[in-house]
Design a protein that fits this description.
This protein is an alpha/beta fold. The protein has five helices and four strands. It has one domain: 3-Layer(aba) Sandwich (Rossmann fold). The chain is about 45% helix and about 15% strand. A four-stranded parallel β-sheet has the order 2-1-3-4, sandwiched between helices.
Length: about 120
Amino acid sequence: MKRRSFLKSLGVAATPLVRFTPPLVAPERIALYDRDLAKGRTLAHYARRAGMPAWSLRDAAADDIGMLWHVQLAAFPARTDAPTVALCALRASDRFVLERLAGPRGFIVIDDKNISVPD
């Protein structure tokens, strides 16, 4: 096969993939924080300024991440076009449980390490 005809056939075969690719959609972001932690208060401040939905573990679920998940977050609308990203400022044990509960529902759980809020 000649190089030119090979490249032409490759371009024709890849054309449907390019034309029907859906547009990228920004993921929904939520914040989960423990207000007893300094990084939790920073995340709460960031979420308030960014207009993100936010839940305090201590206030919303009496310090039980499982209850917070089942009462508030499991009912959070699951999107098919983009995952929900949960920014977290939680203790390691609470984060561990949240990752196990949220993973099968398509949530992405990340730490708040890169969040800094200027006063």
